[in-house]
Amino acid sequence: MISIRIGKKKHPLPVVIKKYIAGVVFAHIAKLAFLTLHLKKQKRISLVGHRLNGNLKSFGEWLIANQNEYQVDFFTDDPAHYKRLKNTDNTMSTYSLQNLNHLKRLATSQVICTSHGPAFLGPWKNSKRRPLFVEFWHGAGFKNRTKEETIPRLFYDAVFVSSPEFKKFHKGWGYSEKQLFVTGYSQVDSLTKAPNQKELQNIRETFGLKDINKKKKIVLYAPTWNSKNQELFSSFDMPGEKFLEELNNIALKQNSLILLLPHLNSTFKLPENLPGLRIVSSKGDMDIKPLLHLVDVLITDWSSIYTDFIAMKTNKPVIFIDTKPTFYGYTLTPADRAGAKTEDFTAFNKQLSESLSNPAKYLKKYNKEMDRVRKKVWGDTLDGKSSARYFETIKEIIR
């Protein structure tokens, strides 16, 4: 079957037609049909993205729970995901960017909020009757952007950022002072307050960990996306299956469970007979953030899950696999990795064992650095009120 690469992945030709070509064509038709008419704008906030997760999901849930002034919709750019969502019980209405009737509803929204840019809606940017566009983004991490990468979002009416430091980065990418608002991230509001025992039990059930002894330490291994190695978790130049076997041995020796979190785009499958390892699915609309409350140690490389993890005010060990980044330039720098940087498996084994057996000793080396990086990434926004700031700021720009 013919496959075409779009962005980070190759897609079969039928998917390219149904998702990408249809998305672009319908967006242009909708612009001509709905944004040239004087259609009355409705008090509606529409969330637009690949999946209903991250900042979109947490803000949407906050809106439904805390206000009744605005309708709340979710629009996905993925027809397959829309099909799955419409057959499940969701708290908000779900629509498709590949449906012209749905696009009419989107065009009459007051605000469109996105987490990965405008998707197929770029042609709407010059229309005087378009909804307001607000960008949430989806992570405050290491990866820098070029001005060219930012061009598709420079028309936005507002961009919400995590801290004054990240506001400076955004200015360097071409955004104006008028566009930028320091709000924090809605998706970390739930991390700023420790859950009670009932909430912890609910988290265990959600992630299939009810059977795990509460005294067993939980390690989360969450690498960033690597398009050249989607199939296996591997590092230190070890074959993937060998590396997983060694991880399994560490887990069994340390009486711990190592959870593997593949990237959303990954096709990874865990081999059998590795009882110390489990997969945590990041697909669909599952919110991974609550799981971080259960995690005792985080293993990562350059993933922005690191900054979500340190949004919790109780420091916990982080171990970095010191791989060469696959992106251009930095926002956070390599020096902002507040944890052990391991270049070979021997060092990794030693640091992971120490962080599990004596976390206080481990953290003594890194507490000050974690506090410094937390301030750099999140400023003063870790008060659990970022969703409320989103809403108040949106109401201000509507006026």
Describe the structure.
With 399 residues, this protein is an alpha/beta fold. The chain has two domains: 3-189 and 383-398, CDP-glycerol glycerophosphotransferase, N-terminal domain (Rossmann fold), CATH 3.40.50.11820; 193-378, Rossmann fold (3-Layer(aba) Sandwich), CATH 3.40.50.12580. The chain is built from 13 helices and 15 strands. It has helices at residues 13-34, 54-66, 79-86, 100-107, 147-150, 164-172, 197-206, 240-253, 305-309, 345-357, 359-364, 367-378, 386-398, and strands at residues 3-6, 9-12, 42-49, 71-76, 93-96, 109-114, 132-135, 158-161, 180-182, 217-221, 256-260, 277-279, 297-300, 318-321, 340-342. The protein has a seven-stranded parallel sheet, sandwiched between helices. Strands 12-11-10-13-14-15 form a six-stranded parallel sheet. The chain has a two-stranded antiparallel sheet with strand order 1-2. α2 (54-66) links the parallel β3 (42-49) and β4 (71-76). It is globular. 38% of the residues are buried.
